[in-house]
Write a structure and sequence with these properties.
With 105 residues, the protein is mainly alpha-helical. The protein contains four helices and no strands. It is flat. The model has no long low-confidence stretch (mean pLDDT 89).
C-alpha cells in the first residue's frame, strides 16, 4: 500500500529538501573505483564559485553584505563544506587503499 500526499512548502524549505535528497543519492566513496577516488582527492570549487565566495566573505567582513548576498554566501559555503567533506572522505579512502601515502607521514 502506498499513500500520496501533496504539501506546499516555502521555496527555501523545498530547496533544502531537494538538496538533501541529492546528497542521499551520492554513491559512497568506498564504492568508487580507484580512479574516481583519486579524482575526488583533487576536488575543488569551480573557479567562479571560489572567486564569488571570496568576494562575499570580504563584503561580510566589511559589514556591507546585502540580504540577497547573505543567502548567496550561505549557498556557496554549503557547496564548499560539502566538497571539503567529500574530498576528506576520498583522501581517507585513498590512504586506506594504499593509493597515496598517509598525510603528514
Amino acid at each position: 500500500m502506498t499513500n500520496q500526499i501533496t504539501i506546499t512548502l516555502p521555496d527555501h524549505v523545498y530547496q533544502k529538501a531537494e538538496h538533501f535528497a541529492r546528497l542521499a543519492n551520492l554513491e559512497p566513496v568506498s564504492a568508487l573505483s580507484e580512479q574516481q577516488v583519486l579524482a575526488l582527492t583533487e576536488l575543488q570549487m569551480k573557479p567562479e564559485e571560489d572567486s564569488r565566495l571570496s568576494e562575499l566573505l570580504d563584503r561580510q567582513q566589511a559589514s556591507i553584505l546585502t540580504e540577497s548576498e547573505h543567502s548567496e554566501l550561505q549557498a556557496l559555503m554549503q557547496i564548499y563544506q560539502e566538497g571539503l567533506l567529500r574530498k576528506a572522505t576520498a583522501l581517507s579512502e585513498a590512504v586506506k587503499r594504499g593509493l597515496i601515502k598517509e598525510l603528514g607521514a
